[in-house]
Amino acid sequence: MAAMRVMVEPNKGKLQGTAARVPFDTIMEHVSAPDRVVYEADNIGGVSGWWCRPEAVRPGQAIVHIHGGWFNWGSAQAYRHLAGHIAASAGVAVFVPDYRLAPEHPFPAAIQDIRACYVGLTERGMSEIAIIGDSAGGNLAIELLVHLVTNSASGSEALVGGVLLSPVTDLALSGDSWSTRAVADPYFTRPQAAELVRSYLAGHNPEDPFVSPVYADLNGLPPIRVHVGDDEVLLDDSVRLVERAVVAGVDARLDVWQGMAHVHMGSIGRLAASTEALQLIGEFLIDRFTKDEINGKRNL
What we know:
The chain is of the alpha/beta class. The protein has one domain: 3-Layer(aba) Sandwich (Rossmann fold), CATH 3.40.50. The chain is 36% helix and 17% strand. The protein has 9 helices and 8 strands. An 8-stranded mixed beta sheet has the order 1-2-4-3-5-6-7-8, sandwiched between helices. Helix 4 packs across helix 5. The radius of gyration is 18 Å and the shape is globular. The termini are far apart.
């Protein structure tokens, strides 16, 4: 971690606007490739993306991994290795959608794409689906879960659970950790995040539960697991979300990783904490898919 900080901190807060897309994707492309995972381009519900398929997957099961990038950056191709590790750990195929990005496509374009992708998976016969999201993708993941549960939307019965990695849950940026972790976080600054959020919201109220799930009604959500680093400005976004989820009766657990920065799972193969987090996520997903299989939820 010390060596990583030396490399990245000179650029802290400097990734901004559409010009940051290429360097951001380059960073994500450096995630180590998992063994025995094959990749396939596809279009689900009108949204292009990439499948990450481990060996011996079972029919009817899928994971949606919604990538991060502050709603302005990121691509399915750049995230395929990170998603591939999750696919291998759970033994379930992962689809990473290329949802539309701001500023060309501000709110609600990304949410619309994620919902369409989910419906597309159910139309292909997926009867057990888990939702995973990192950073801004964690925001979209929770929004999808809330939408499906509160509106009894088509396909909501297929949900088995969700995993969030350093999610952005409060676009008002009101969490205390924006101050308490301002120095410790090696990547982001509040002015940087505020501009990226402004680009995404295009004037929409940041405290609207439709864009900031920390303010949403979380009753009825399926089991969720949240992983966040102790050294990141988004720490309170995770803490507050899980506290509210628990109060709402959700099976929710928060793992705070000491000394770790934003989405530290991207350092699989270099950090022991990344390997341990991946193992916990894989165990949770295996448990969720197995329970629903036992309960006869899967189409046979």
